Here is the input.
Amino acid sequence: MIAIASDHGGFDLKEEVKKHLQERNIEVKDFGTFDKNSCDYPDFGVQAAKAVASGE
Here is the structure.
């Protein structure tokens, strides 16, 4: 499984990467953001990093 996250500025790219991986049957866990509203990447990046560090 691959953890993926972004802020509003990277949302479109994150969605493209996620689609690319899913088309290749690679499991993806998306930690956000889930829209283009202004946000800060650490809010989502830390969640992804903690999941990776814990082995989730």
User: Anything to note?
Assistant: The chain has a mean pLDDT of 96. Residues 11-23 form the longest helix (13 residues). The chain has one domain: 2-54.
